[in-house]
Amino acid sequence: MAFDHEHRIDRSRERRRILVVSSGLSPAVITESLYALSVAQKPAWVPDELHVITTGRGAELVETRIFGADGALRRLCAEYDLPLPEHGGPRLHVLRDDCGNIDFDAVEDSAIARMGDLALRVLKQLSLMPEADIHLSLSGGRKTMSYFAGLALSLVGRPTDRLSHVVLSDSDLEYATDFFYPPRQPREFICRPPGRGEVTRSSEGVAIALADVPFVPLRDALSETLLRGSSDWSLHMLAQRAREAISPTRLVARFMLDRARVVLNDVEIPLSPHEAALYYVLACRKSFNPRCDNDELYFYFEHAPHMLPEEDGMRRSMQLSDAFVRLARTLGNVDAKPGKLLRRSDFRDPSSMSEPTAKRLMDARYDKFAHEFSAISSKIDATLGPLLGRHFKPAGQKGKPRLWPDEVTITIEPT
Length: 415
Prior knowledge:
The chain is α/β, with parallel strands linked by helices. Helices cover 38% and strands 15% of the residues.
């Protein structure tokens, strides 16, 4: 039979294709998944990379039966004219215990949980490639391992990623140790299904069905800081974070005045001191217009220093520091000097100025505060994720006052 060249991969396409398989003690699921995607499916989905997640014992079987020089993977690719996965060839991700030793069986609950953590680490790293699509096959391993792998994809997967399960039309062939895919030339296989003794089955007409498994992408429930960071979060912890983001039981903003720190639901937001100060001003005032009037501006100068530990003079007596002198001149049209006491009456009323001067003054206020509000919202999203972050971000459209989210409880330390 002539080779069918329609499956040959187009290396010039822009998006990479990555097949990830969770495998237990039946490594045939690897080649069956590859066959289902690259040969049986039309149009073919031929992966550029192949990753296998398994235990120590499973890795031994994969190395000898699938990845070896005469293994089933090379035979499948040669027989159906498929390219071997590139980028260093197929990759094994093997479960290890808490001491770094290979875990051969993963029979204890803690080992199965680590299997979920391993799947999370692999999928999280692969999901950072924006130009790649991930296809996760859940056909191998214990049911709990498959569930954990699917949960991991839900947490870090993108809408372009897929989850599937492959099923043989003749289930007896699952118990044939030398069946890895339907060969081009049909032949018979010795099968030993449980409780039925030895039976012979032909591969002629055998189909491998690919069933799509729907999953809900929860990536937006997590922060980009968490997804891209190096912290080694467990699957359980990440699932808990996603659950809290979707249905938060509390919303608390903590302002630590002596350290210029803002902590939202126990997560510190990396705001600059002046961003933290503006966020604190908004919490105190409940509303703040970036194109602020003189009352709002004075309120800012009165309260912002509380989040700036070095501004002791400003906190105690509104005595201008070097850092605030330029700000007062720019935003308030004040003849400010270091050590001067700032009063509400020092701010010139824009209505008493010429139109160009008043416009420059109001534009300067808007440029500073609108930029800082934008930075605050971006950092909240990046740290908490969009779902949880939306509860804490200042509300209000461009050109309108920013509003403090009423459902958020405020705590101030020290009081």
